[in-house]
Amino acid sequence: GGWSIKKIRKALDALLKDPSVDMILTLGFVGSNEAVQRSEFSKPVIAPFIMDQDLQGISTKKQRGQVPNLNYLVISESFERSLQAFQEIVPIKNIILLQDETIFKTAPDLQKRVDWFAKKNHLVFHPIDVTRSVDPIWSQFPPNIQGVFVGPLFRLTHSEFDRLVQGLIDR
Known about the structure:
Structural class: alpha/beta
Strand content: 15-25%
Number of strands: 6
């Protein structure tokens, strides 16, 4: 899908309609998120890359496995729990949120849930989108930041992630 929600949505629609396809395995966050946002499935769909079922708005019915033909795997701790643990170590309120730029573009409700969480916990998030390079992010750091929360950065290479870590240490 090339990180394009339109292409992924179109491909998923085609696969669900194709009688020669017995089962669908979504690959990546965008495809998995698109799958779990649906409510009806004509064949088994497995979405193995769900990051946070609450933050991604997965209904209780889906969480309990009550939607026929939908199966998914949650691959990380909840966003809320991770931030609570972060705040237990360092009680801060002014936080940069480094995020892969495609996450909020392909899952717009996610941004609403993050904003709700920030308000509920009296936090100020400064989201910064990350693509394939960390070079553009440094100029976006506002003054008086107390911490940085690094979300999944799917498209950074290992060497670019190492540059990110070193850049954060240097600051």
